[in-house]
Design a protein that fits this description.
The protein is mostly helical. The protein is 62% helix and 0% strand.
């Protein structure tokens, strides 16, 4: 079952909203400064574009989590940019090295995987609902369908029948209609 454009856009908008919100909240909670509005807007547009391309059919939990992880990493790097020159405005905790940022990496990864699982469950529920609706509505429309009217087979040519008069056929028969005679 393939998704048409309205469903694709709705699914992509829901995925983009969750993905960008998760990235912004993760960025702020992890100690980063709030991302610039232009970074959030351009990140949301990029995520929406990728989501529309991938929203054509049902995706598995692994596919959703993988795409979400890649997009989270991309958004995280985009939010690091503080201005047009690419120099962060405030010192960012991610620049301290792997040892100190391992906890942050685990927190980001855990949040991404939990969100990916949550989105995949919603995806499964949506497609199950669509399949059920298609099945039920299809059955209803099959009941409403008018039977096809077949063309009547052509009648064979009639052979002319000569009329036979009833008197000629019944001239040797005796008809005694009436009540029985009383017994004497």
């Amino acid at each position: 079952m393939r998704a048409r454009l309205p469903l694709r856009l709705t699914r992509a908008a829901a995925f983009s909203a969750v993905c960008v919100t998760l990235a912004v909240l993760g960025h702020v909670v992890a100690g980063g400064s709030g991302p610039e509005p232009w970074a959030v807007a351009s990140g949301a547009a990029a995520v929406m574009a990728v989501s529309v391309l991938l929203a054509g059919r049902e995706r598995s939990t692994v596919a959703i989590s993988t795409v979400l992880s890649v997009l989270q990493l991309s958004l995280h790097e985009l939010f690091l940019l503080g201005d047009a020159t690419g120099i962060p405005v405030a010192p960012h905790p991610h620049a301290r090295g792997l040892g100190e940022s391992l906890g942050m990496l685990v927190a980001h990864l855990t949040a991404t995987l939990v969100t990916g699982w949550w989105l995949a469950r919603g995806e499964t529920a949506l497609w199950a609902l669509l399949r059920s609706a298609r099945h039920r509505l299809g059955a209803m429309f099959r009941l409403l369908r008018l039977p096809a009217v077949a063309a009547a087979p052509p009648r064979p040519a009639r052979t002319p029948v000569t009329p036979v008069f009833a008197r000629a056929v019944l001239r040797h028969s005796v008809s005694r209609r009436g009540p029985p005679l009383p017994a004497a």
